[in-house]
Amino acid sequence: TLAEILQNHAEPYGITCGEIAEVRAASAYTVAAGSSQWKAVESFCRACGGFVPRFSREGELLASPEQAGRTLSIGEGDPVLSCTLREDHYGVLTEALVIDKTQNQEFSVKNQEMIDKGGQCRRVLYTPGQSTWAAMRYTGEYQIQRSGEDAWTAEVTLPGSFLAFPGDRVSLSLERMGLSGTFRVAEAENRFDGGNGALVTLTLKPLKT
């Protein structure tokens, strides 16, 4: 269970857990040799719960699905100092081939969207014995999803401090840049510039489906 993972890999190091989801592995779960304590927790949450653990502003570990915070609206009339859009497809998988050598089975999961764009990046993964077809398919889909998480990023800089925090939502309506919709705040950097005063840069990513 997630509680057992935290007891072994977080709590002994003085980490206080503010939220713990009721997550249990469907089958035996092994922490890979050489993994850091954080990697052990993160991998379990991703693989068995479908979410990423994080820390609260108070420093508590939140091992549960992220809940949407408040929503900040940014439009053409707001004092946007800069806006940068990055789209990087390097490393985004077009196919994940999962192989169970023990049972001599394999399953291919393809990323048709990237294939249609002309991408070509294939990864072969070997699973432990006795893998079920459902588990193999999930492993392939999981690898493709992870490979594309950082493909699209927008950074918006505005005057002010602490306008939003990670987990909050930003509703963009910047038609001149072709940016509209609601996005998740992945990072919020607050700083003070001697010439411009307090500034905040919000790193935005698409909402997970």
Number of discrete helical segments: 4
The gyration radius over C-alpha positions equals 20 Å
Helix and strand composition category: alpha/beta
Residue stretches low in confidence (pLDDT < 50, at least 5 long) are none
Number of domains: 3
CATH class of the largest domain: Mainly Beta
Name the shape in a single word.
flat
The end-to-end span amounts to 25 Å
Q: State the order of secondary-structure elements, H for helix, E for strand.
A: HEHEEEEEEHEHEEEE
- The CATH topology name of the largest domain reads Phage tail proteins - horseshoe like beta roll fold
Features:
Phage tail proteins - horseshoe like beta roll fold, 20% helix, 3-stranded mixed sheet, alpha/beta, 6-stranded mixed sheet, 209 residues
